[in-house]
Design goal:
Distance between the termini: 38 Å
Order of helices and strands: HHEEEHEEH
Strand order of the largest sheet: 1-2-3-5-4
Shape: globular
Number of helices: 4
Strand content: 15-25%
């Protein structure tokens, strides 16, 4: 193929990747405009809107425009786009204190099986995300063993 054909093929694959959406996924339907949302920002790779079940005023979701249930299944360019979008939202809503939350799998409290990031303002003790953090004392020998297994 000539240069123009290779460029078109590459463009087609980029557009296909950017629009890999699932027909029955509620977030994919929001991205496609089939379900209305309170959209606040959109890029080539991300779609952001206010949560309709907020933990506090300004609670927003950033969803990649690529259907993947868990973060490790998502292409890197979608991950790279999501955090700058979350940052812009946190700045735009003027949140001094906030959480960025992303869950993977039902056991980890993921309700919608499409990767998404919550931007949750924490204006006071009562509003926003409340979490327990049941920390344990680390076993240093086990940590050393784990480091040898998980070096990336």
């Amino acid at each position: 193929p000539n240069h123009a054909q290779r460029s078109l093929t590459k463009l087609d694959s980029i557009q296909t990747m950017a629009t890999k959406l699932a027909a029955e996924c509620i977030f994919c339907k929001i991205i496609k405009g089939e379900i209305p949302s309170f959209k606040i920002h959109e890029t080539a790779h991300s779609f952001a809107f206010f949560d309709i079940g907020p933990l506090s005023e300004g609670h927003a979701l950033v969803i990649p425009k690529h259907h993947a249930e868990k973060m490790h299944e998502l292409p890197d360019e979608f991950l790279a786009d999501a955090m700058p979008v979350a940052k812009k939202i946190a700045l735009a809503i003027g949140a001094d204190n906030y959480n960025i939350l992303q869950n993977n799998g039902r056991l980890a409290h993921q309700e919608v099986p499409h990767v998404h990031f919550h931007v949750i303002p924490k204006p006071n003790e009562e509003e926003g995300l409340t979490i327990g953090w049941p920390a344990k004392k680390a076993d240093f020998d086990k940590l050393k063993e784990l480091v040898s297994k998980v070096k990336i």
